[in-house]
Amino acid sequence: MIDFHSHVIPRVDDGSRSSAMSIDMLKAMKSQGLSTVCCTPHYYASQHSPEHFLKMRDSAFEHLLKKLPEDLKDISLLPGAEVLYFPGMAESEELESLCIEGTDLFLLEMPFRKWSEREINEVFMLLRSGRFKIILAHTERYFYYQKDPQLFRELQFEGMVLQSNAGFFLNRWTKHKALKLFDGGFVDLISTDAHNTEDRVPNMGAALELIELRCGKKAAEALIKGGDTLLFRHLNSTNGK
Ligand SMILES: [Fe+2]
């Protein structure tokens, strides 16, 4: 089972604050059945060039790898980024370097407000460019602002993968909405978006249990299999180190 979205690399963003915390997060992930974890710190174009970000991320990632205990060495860790939309991104030639390593999977975060026509058009341009496969991070956070679910259907139709956070299914106030979106076909993937061991913890196991309980075993299995297939189909030999 794969986690496509996590903040497990220490001290690069608002995620894990130490190697010890990252190790605890990874232990929890492993105990929940995760075999591959994409490590996707926030990338803000207003703060860093891709080159600077990658240097910082890779150095923290290498440091974490050196600290990993033996019993975690069988988890596959893939560095990536959660890239916040920025105007003009469709013209940027450096975006490929921010894909999840060894793949052409690109984790995109959109602004938490109603998107402008320009923003929507630019995302469609990126989708149609065929440069990479776009995963939309925590899709549930945008539904409130965009209102019309048809937009998300159109994004899916153009090949976007809609990712929801596991926590969306577990919070008592959002659980109902999460299951409704899941039933409606608006959840292609779930991921932890785990930040720490306190309030944004790795929680794939509990979310899948809930989905199995409420939607059936086949639905939960299909979700896991969908993630496995997505990664398998988008592995490449040109993007990785
Ligand atoms: Fe995130």
Structural class: alpha/beta
Distance between the termini: 23 Å
* CATH level 1 class label: Alpha Beta
| Biggest beta sheet attributes | 6 strands, parallel
Fold-level CATH name:
TIM Barrel
Q: CATH homologous superfamily?
A: Metal-dependent hydrolases
Question: Strands of the largest sheet, in order across it?
Answer: 3-5-6-7-8-9
- Hetero ligands: fe (ii) ion
Return the domain count: 1
Catalogue the unreliable spans: none
Radius of gyration: 17 Å
Give the beta-strand count.
9
Shape type: globular
Number of DSSP helical runs: 9
Strand content: 5-15%
Order of helices and strands: EHEEHEEEHEHHEHHEHH
CATH hierarchy: architecture = Alpha-Beta Barrel
User: Helical residue percent?
Assistant: 40-55%
